[in-house]
Write a structure and sequence with these properties.
Blueprint: H1 2-8, E1 16-19, E2 24-26, E3 31-35, E4 42-47, H2 51-68, H3 73-102, H4 106-126, E5 134-135, E6 142-150, E7 153-157, H5 165-176, E8 180-184, H6 190-207, E9 214-217, H7 221-229, E10 235-239, H8 242-254, E11 258-262, E12 267-271, H9 277-289, E13 299-305, H10 306-321, H11 341-356, E14 360-363, E15 382-385, H12 391-394, E16 401-407, H13 410-418, E17 422-423, E18 425-429, H14 433-440, E19 449-452, E20 464-465, E21 468-469, E22 476-477, E23 486-494
Parallel strand pairs: 7-8, 7-10, 8-9, 10-11, 12-13, 12-18, 13-16, 15-16, 18-19
Antiparallel strand pairs: 1-2, 1-9, 3-4, 5-6, 6-23, 14-15, 17-21, 20-22
Helix pairs in contact: 1-3, 3-4, 3-6, 4-5, 7-8, 9-10
This protein binds nicotinamide-adenine-dinucleotide.
The site of nicotinamide-adenine-dinucleotide has 30 residues, from α7 and α8.
Length: 509
């Protein structure tokens, strides 16, 4: 099965370090071999881009921008429409490759490709709606309006956990806005990126889009740092850990460039005494164990009202007993492996820290062993009762560890939810309108995403996605997030016979 998918996306034969949207570019850089966390098998290799190839790719992107921004936006939209159509055809194959290279369940792999299709559809509509406003001028015979122009080259640095969807959120919107893009995927998932560029190449060839509009460069944080410092890149959109975001932000600020940051979360669901506990259970369990706890929106903390605490915890325990961990391509398994052995070490270290700080495990964790788990990347999803102020609880551990915290009053629960450095996703489970509205008010959750009767995990592409505080403040995907990929220009036009100055200033000579 996999062989044919690799062949379909021309992955086995490339060994390439870069792609300019029309062809793969062999690079004499360091070889990266991608091993699947599912079974530890080698999938294929590709090369890190070297500095010369990197410079050539960026220089070519700068040239490509001059042509691409002259293509009318609805025509750019039509190209994105064709990418969406091809993604529909390739959904099954690309979804399987995502699942095998990253380790998420096949359902989630397919869901990720569906998100790519959805953002293509959104971008097509947007291509006719890149609207500015008009204003009334204070001067007679004057007209004022604002318009939006593309920025230029958009650099996209992405994380391993959404290896393709996050790129598409950025690339499809950036390209429809008239930008060209350069993508550096995670060094942990290089092959799914190669497959995406294969799809782009087919559409670009058919439409004679010049090389350089949509580029791929493979590499690690060194290549990411080249991008952050590169004055030829007008916007850096970076998704990953807060540590990475701080480094990128500093480098981009140093050249007064633009940055869009999508960083770590530490997401909580408040479960009120007025919650539908069965619905809450689905939201909490999927949020905590989906993608093996490796989503930026994964549920890390449950803040549960004391009146329903025991009842809910017993439901949770019985749900956890039914969870199956194993090959994510097999439909019966709820969660697959962590991305690599380092992630397992981090998970085990977090468990030690929780114990040291006084946390009590009500569902024990640990590494899974045996033939089924031969890659060494499988762990048990676990649950611990903790205090919100433990140092380990304040951090994002990218693994299926769920923390439980009790509360008495909603104001206290909201304060606990907000009392972490991150601010991505939050939720309340309640059938009480007053509670729901307080949670959504300015006195409520301080996150970029706040949900009612839905968990924290996952989001639809139609809304602007992103978070506050150490999550970085960026917004991507739907709503008016497209404005981050454009520059605003205010225009004032005088169609009269004299030149009055603003604010009535007199200047006669
Ligand atoms: P990571 O920070 O290790 O790497 C992310 C990307 O940044 C990779 O491409 C990596 O090569 C690059 N990178 C790392 N250090 C860099 C540096 N100093 N300069 C330039 N580039 C650098 O993150 P990861 O382990 O791949 O992903 C997990 C993290 O991503 C979690 O914290 C998760 O919450 C976050 N994430 C956030 C969102 C969001 O939308 N908020 C979405 C997905 C993942």
């Amino acid at each position: 099965m996999l062989e044919s998918i690799l062949e379909e996306f021309s992955i086995k034969e490339t060994n390439a370090g870069a792609h300019n949207g029309r062809q793969t570019i062999p690079t004499p850089g360091e070889l990266i071999t991608s091993f699947s966390p599912v079974d530890g098998q080698e999938i294929a290799s590709t090369c890190f881009v070297n500095k010369d190839t990197y410079d050539a790719i960026i220089a070519n992107a700068v040239l490509a921008f001059q042509e691409w921004n002259a293509v009318p936006a609805p025509k750019r939209g039509d190209i994105i429409r064709q990418i969406g159509a091809l993604l529909r055809e390739e959904k099954e194959s690309l979804g399987k490759l995502v699942s095998y290279e990253m380790g998420k369940s096949l359902q989630e792999g397919l869901g990720e490709v569906q998100e790519m299709i959805d953002i293509c559809d959104f971008a097509v509509g947007l291509s006719r709606q890149l609207h500015g406003s008009t204003m009334h001028s204070e001067r007679a015979n004057h007209r004022m309006y604002e318009q939006w122009h593309p920025l230029g080259v958009v650099g996209i640095i992405s994380a391993f956990n959404f290896p393709v969807a996050v790129w598409s959120w950025n690339a499809m919107i950036a390209m429809v806005c008239g930008n060209v893009c350069v993508w550096k995927p995670s060094e942990k998932t290089p092959l799914t990126a190669q497959a995406c560029l294969h799809i782009i190449q087919k559409v670009f060839e058919k439409n004679n889009v010049r090389p350089g509009v949509c580029n791929l460069i493979q590499g690690d944080k060194e290549v990411g740092a080249w991008m952050a410092a590169d004055t030829r890149i007008n916007l850096i959109s970076a998704t990953g850990s807060t540590k990475m975001g701080k480094a990128v932000n500093l480098a981009v600020a140093n050249r007064l460039g633009k940055c869009l940051l999508e960083l770590g979360g530490n997401n909580a669901i408040i479960i009120s005494k007025d919650a539908d506990l069965n619905m809450s259970l689905i939201g909490a369990v999927f949020g905590a164990v989906g993608t093996a706890g490796q989503r930026c929106t994964s549920t890390r903390r449950l803040i549960i009202h004391e009146d329903v605490y025991d009842d809910f915890v017993s439901k949770l325990k019985s749900a956890y007993q039914q969870l199956k961990v194993g090959n994510p391509l097999e439909a019966e398994n709820h969660l697959g492996p962590l991305i690599d052995k380092d992630a397992v070490i981090n998970y085990l270290h977090a468990i030690e820290e929780i114990k040291k700080e006084g946390g009590k495990f009500i569902v024990e964790g640990g590494e899974l062993e045996g033939n089924k788990y031969a890659s060494g990347c499988y762990v048990k999803p676990c649950i611990a009762e903790v205090e919100n102020n433990y140092a380990i609880v304040q951090k994002e551990t990218f693994a299926p560890i769920l923390y439980l915290i009790r509360y008495k009053k909603l104001e206290e629960a909201i304060a606990l939810q907000n009392d972490v450095p991150q601010g991505l996703s939050s939720a309340i489970m309640t059938l009480n309108l007053r509670e729901a509205e307080l949670f959504l008010s300015a006195k409520g959750a301080d996150c970029g995403i706040a949900n009612v009767n839905i968990g924290t995990s996952g989001a639809e592409i139609g809304g602007a996605f992103g978070g506050e505080k150490e999550t970085g403040g960026g917004r991507e995907s739907g709503s008016d997030a497209w404005k981050s990929y454009m520059r605003r220009q205010t225009n004032t036009i005088n169609y009269g016979n004299n030149l009055p100055l603003a604010q009535g200033i007199k200047f006669d000579f």
